[in-house]
Design brief:
14% strand; alpha/beta; 25 helices; 728 residues; eight-stranded mixed beta sheet; 30% helix
Amino acid sequence: MQAKKRYLILFSVGVSLILLLYLQGPASRRTPNRGDDPHPHWPPFSDPLQAFIPWDQTETEDYNVRASPRHKRDDNSGASKCRMDSCFDFSLCRRNGFKVYVYPQQKGEKISESYQNILSSIEGSRFYTSDPGQACLFVLNLDTLDRDQLSPQYVHNLKTKIQNLNLWNNGRNHLIFNLYSGTWPDYTEDLGFDIGQAMLAKASISTENFRPNFDISIPLFSKDHPRTGGERGYLKYNTIPPFRKYVLVFKGKRYLTGIGSDTRNALHHIHNSEDVVLLTTCKHGKDWQKHKDARCDKDNAEYDRYDYKEMLHNSTFCLVPRGRRLGSFRFLEALQAACVPVMLSNGWELPFSEIIDWRTASVIGDERLLLQIPSTVRSIHQDRILSLRQQTQFLWEAYFSSVEKIVLTTLEIIQDRVLQHNARSTLMWNQLPGGLFTLPQYSSYLGDFPFFYAVLGVKPQQKFTAVIHAVTPLVSQSQPIFKLLVAVAKSQYCAQIIVLWNCDKPLPAKHRWPATSVPVIVIEGESKVMSSRFLPYENIRTDAVLSLDEDTVLSTTEVDFAFTVWQSFPERIVGYPARSHFWDSNKERWGYTSKWTNDYSMVLTGAAFYHRYYNYLYTHYLPSSLKSMVDQLSNCEDILMNFLVSAVTKMPPIKVTQKKQYKETMMGQFSSPKNNPDHFAQRQTCMNKFASWFGTMPLVHSQMRLDPVLFKDQVSILRKKYKDIERL
């Protein structure tokens, strides 16, 4: 009985426990998870919360100083994520091509000389349009170069002025140029106004704030940087081995405190006063003595002992450390001096990094590994040094020697983005003659340009097209043009002859022309102007063009020999009538001479071979102002072509053997513009006008003339390949 009672009590307790668990619900039986916690734990945040800033204070100068450019762009319609496909309207470029509009200058607005040079370079380029309706890209007339609030060039109220521009459209399809941003003590990259969706062409831009394939990093250049032309590089000849007096040099300011001070303050650790000469001075600024340290006096004394230019010209490597900003004037100075720049500015997006392979022209160092720099540059092989040095000269002259080249390179990069199917290849940008002279609209195949034959291992075609410029009517079968046609047609290398009819009289009937073994095509010149002789006619299908005046007297042998020579120098003008230029110190201008002298700098296109690409370059690269001058004078087109080719190649033309009476024969034939008494004076004027536009004198003198082997040698005439040349 007692046992039964105990079992009943245990059973009752068990049932009670089961009921109790059931009444507490199923939640008590689940494995707890993060969603069931009524008081969840917040994940840790690495960045502390920023102080709240009222909306009406976000445009104050205090906010502009404290907020980074990227943080501020994040607050403005995703501008930091801008790329060409998201923040650029390509439809504006499809209507009229790549055209650039510069806003007209507003009354009372002052513009610095440097910014005026930028605007003038755009207005003088082939991209410029004065009609905003035709524009693909817009450039402000407001000076945005110097955005340091302590600078006298700083433009106030820029935000309001920009927002009032009718075409601003939140910066879409706009390009903003800037050299200096931020101010003491942080020197941030903020411009002090909302750039919206505009592209930045900016100096000293960091990789953090750089928007790839949208912004463009440009070099920092001084106010004295030439607008056009610019000086050539300082490397006159290559020395083997390519070592100089110093291995590594630097001379510049040392900042005792603040941003940019760490690297320059540490340079004394690797300075040895022998082949590694790194000089700094803290003697700058109004109150430098208040902050000077124990090394200042010693550094200042040694700083004054060395001449900076002498160091540049006699050093293999030049250190380019960051200053207050990432970029430095030392960068361009080193390039020009053929002193291989050693970059010491972590986070700097190098100038034109989108197109230039800087590994071929510089050494990229690390500020954190300063002590390793001397051993690193000493370990570079002399062959590599020679290659680096040569590339510095090419890059300097191609893209950096003038404000105009910097601006045009910027515009060409943007055009390549817009016209992606016609964009330049890396090789075009990084090899002579450079991207500015290699127009991809001509061809996408490198083998169609004369500059890349050696790289590709190809040769020009074995045929040529003769283009005879005719300006006088046909009145007699004894005219030189008929004899010229027959002589050229007999050449084994002639593919066809084009007669460019620039005469006021109607086209002659076909039966008036002599019968030849090659096709003779007669076409009317466009508008009957001189520049039409250099148009890229579709009829010209050969690489080589033989340009001829109608009164030229040449034999078949002379044509064959000149073409053979041209095949070895396809990037140059090769021909017969030579001329020269000189500097007239009395009149302080360039002079032109046709005298027979011991040197020459031009080969006239009255009897010369050149590559057909130069027709395209003449038509599409040169400004309309120069071509209009040629057409108005009916003169100087041959001089302009020589200027262009020498500017591209940096080399002189090549003169080949000719008979002595060539000049006198040509000048005495029929009625020719060359017999005009003003002809010579006009050519003098042209020389100086052309030199002014190029910004320098591109013509190069030469004393070389190429003759056939065995020419004038005392051997049998039967052994000579071009025997007829000696009989003329």
